[in-house]
Batch of 2 targets.
Target 1
Amino acid sequence: MGNYPTTADEIGYNRERRIDMTIIEQIEEANKRHTKVSMDVVWGDAADGGLTVARQHQTCPIWHDTVQYKASTIVCEYDDEILEDVLYWLEYVYGCDCVIDYKKLADNKIAIRAQYQCW
């Protein structure tokens, strides 16, 4: 396996606060690397400059269906760096493997349907 810490002391477990400070610091560092698109932009409504075009129980303008419970449709530029950040923030909120469908659009954009996976 990788170089992952295996004991409470190795991960810096603070018994009084019961928080693993090392993991929190790692998450904060990962969040800082994804700066092309912020989490607020990914989850913001398209009408307000965000990337979300439909949320649960709304009619999706891309697939022309009703978005399922705890799902969203996001539209972003079809650019590797932007797409990487969008997928990072989707998985940050919805959990890994949350992308259930995608569609390339004509104007060099991509639509992504993501659904909550952290049941």
Target 2
Amino acid sequence: MLNLKFAIGRSTSCESFLLQDVTGNFSTTNPGGYGTLNEDASEVQKSRLLVYATDNTTVLYTIETYDSASDPTYTSSFETTITNAMIGVTEGNIPAQIVKMTYIIEKTTGENQFSYSKDEYVFLSCSSVCCMDEMFAEAVNCSCQDKGKLQDALYLQGLITAVNTALSPSCNKIEQAYTLLNEINKICAGSGCTNCD
């Protein structure tokens, strides 16, 4: 059976993020991949991304990410850009937050129709990474005797890594991720970062 997987990648500008199908192709080490015993990626006719409100049950945005009627053939390495405007952010960057998302692929016409979906909690980290980068840049400009700014930047870097680890399927500690995110937001709010909102 197909084991749909997706990832969200960060853009350098913080004005968008990348949705990537990371299911991969079928192999002995990836039995849930596309092809062979499972549906082939080229059979996908539509895909969409659901973005939930903070209650994790109300769908705020449904983003149509692929339609075979107008797009080239879907592949196992499909990716598309999701702009900030598509999720309601019309000015500035997406604030650092954890968002529940569901990725859906479907074949809705013809023989052997199918629908697969995958839920993930995703850390939209661009603004916090921007804040961390500014803190590192400021630490470089400080005197060698002031190690506090460097320590703060390293701590923030550790927290960002910890959120991503807590949200990983192998860890799945969602509540802990939210606690870490609150600490990240406190640090960034008090850091004086000016180019990350």
